[in-house]
């Protein structure tokens, strides 16, 4: 894994504007940044990223089955009591999933370490699946990259195939996101584009324009009944929304399904460590309430985790990351090393939520920036990667997106 300086395409901003990539620059700073790119070997992609991400996804599915059978875990993961049956029934009915994104720490020498799983509403899909692929094609055509250079990026094709598996040709799908958010709309439109290529109907409606008919069905802004809804709106919010009372009786299929509420939740990290302690792609993680007193020297760990904590205590004492079970774009995340906070997120939006503590895995540093690998799952298989980097050790909403290529 290397970071290679490359000439930018002369008119890439014009191309971005033409394609509707309106957030390539944000707040006067580049979001898409192509003056350099990350180079991987095929072995690194296949053995260190693709196969482990697919295996991690299978482990997460095992964790879902464990969590939904435990009232204690449903409580600890913040699933509202009124909707726990909805979440559990969604899993037991095998409601289908479409996509997700693992965030991994990786420096070119495996194993990659799972930082979290964005399993419900992952963004950066358009720039990963589409714009970085066009970058590869353009740079090969210009002679900047070599013929034979490749990219791990079968995401769009995988989405088309997955949607074609799930729905009969001609099925109408609805898509929604909070209005006025260009990045969210780009993600939704990326999936809508895949749906249309799969021979499906794709209708967009802003989230606040969805209503409920007199007989309890969800309807769009043109009063069309919503049979299947792709929603770029997190389950942790939806389950606390008054509209949640209508979900079970609406007859609508949701993508992502309600069971994703337990894997789009950082409490999953503690559950995975309980189930798969020592797995090479996992970091020790615990519910903060169980181990924080022991780490601060003010008490003992909870009995149910005492043995596992003892095995991880030395690593956690060196450094850990405190994360709310609900958090987006690094908000309310803190890094603690040797008992002292050494970096804290400025955005404290999620401070009110329960926390997990995860062993700190320092990100590699390339030219002053720290990359996080986003490994995209479509269906149940890893289909591609995207990279975001930041000077900060906490990846945030304005962290830069960097393209990648494969060359042996």
Please describe what this structure looks like.
By secondary structure, this protein is of the alpha+beta class. It folds into 2 domains: 2-264 and 367-406, no CATH class; 284-359, no CATH class. The chain has helices spanning 12-18, 42-68, 71-76, 84-92, 125-141, 155-166, 182-197, 235-238, 247-250, 267-275, 288-296, 306-318; strands at residues 2-5, 25-26, 29-30, 36-40, 99-105, 113-118, 172-177, 201-204, 211-212, 218-219, 228-232, 253-255, 285-287, 319-324, 334-337, 340-344, 355-359, 370-378, 381-390, 400-402, 404-406. The strands form 6 sheets. The chain has a 5-stranded antiparallel β-sheet. It has a 5-stranded antiparallel β-sheet with strand order 13-17-14-15-16. Strands 8-7-11-12 form a 4-stranded parallel β-sheet, covered by helices on one side. Helix 2 (42-68) packs across helix 10 (267-275) and helix 6 packs across helix 7. The relative contact order is 0.18. The model has no long low-confidence stretch (mean pLDDT 95).
Number of strands: 21
How much strand content do the residues show?
Answer: 15-25%
The gross shape turns out to be: globular
Mind telling me the C-alpha Rg?
21 Å
Name some characteristics of this structure.
408 residues, alpha+beta, 2 domains, 5-stranded antiparallel sheet, 12 helices, 21 strands, 24% strand, globular
């Amino acid at each position: 894994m290397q970071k290679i300086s490359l000439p930018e395409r002369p008119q890439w901003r014009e191309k971005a504007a033409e394609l509707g990539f309106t957030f390539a620059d944000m707040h006067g700073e580049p979001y898409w940044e192509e003056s350099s790119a990350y180079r991987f070997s095929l072995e690194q992609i296949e053995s260190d990223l693709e196969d482990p991400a697919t295996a991690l996804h299978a482990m997460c599915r095992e964790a879902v089955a464990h969590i939904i059978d435990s009232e204690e875990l449903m409580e600890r993961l913040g699933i509202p009591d009124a909707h726990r049956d909805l979440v559990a029934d969604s899993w037991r009915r095998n409601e289908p999933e479409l996509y997700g994104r693992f965030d991994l720490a990786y420096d070119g020498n495996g194993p990659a370490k799972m930082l979290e799983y964005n399993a419900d509403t992952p963004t950066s899909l358009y720039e990963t699946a589409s714009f970085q692929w066009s970058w590869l094609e353009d740079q090969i055509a210009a002679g900047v990259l070599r013929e034979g250079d490749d990219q791990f990026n079968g995401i769009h094709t995988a989405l088309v195939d997955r949607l074609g598996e799930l729905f009969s040709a001609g099925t109408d799908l609805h898509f929604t996101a909070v209005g006025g958010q260009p990045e969210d709309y780009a993600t939704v439109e990326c999936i809508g584009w895949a749906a249309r290529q799969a021979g499906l109907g794709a209708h967009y409606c802003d989230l606040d324009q969805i209503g409920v008919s007199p007989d309890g069905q969800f309807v769009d802004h043109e009063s069309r009944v919503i049979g299947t809804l792709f929603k770029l709106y997190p389950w942790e919010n939806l389950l606390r929304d008054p509209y949640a009372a209508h979900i079970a009786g609406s007859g609508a299929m949701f993508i992502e399904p309600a069971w994703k509420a337990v894997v789009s939740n950082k409490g999953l990290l503690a559950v995975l460590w309980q189930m798969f302690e020592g797995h090479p792609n996992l970091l020790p993680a615990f519910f903060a309430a169980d181990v924080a007193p022991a780490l601060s020297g003010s008490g003992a760990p909870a009995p149910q985790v005492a043995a596992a904590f003892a095995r991880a205590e030395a690593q956690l004492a060196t450094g850990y990351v405190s994360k709310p079970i609900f958090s987006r774009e690094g908000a309310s995340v803190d890094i603690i090393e040797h008992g002292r906070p050494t970096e804290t997120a400025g955005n404290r939006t999620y401070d009110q939520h329960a926390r997990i503590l995860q062993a700190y895995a320092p990100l590699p540093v390339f030219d002053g920036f720290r990359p996080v690998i986003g490994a995209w799952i479509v269906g149940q298989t890893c289909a591609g990667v995207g990279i975001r980097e930041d000077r900060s050790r906490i990846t945030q909403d304005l962290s830069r997106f960097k393209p990648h290529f494969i060359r042996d």
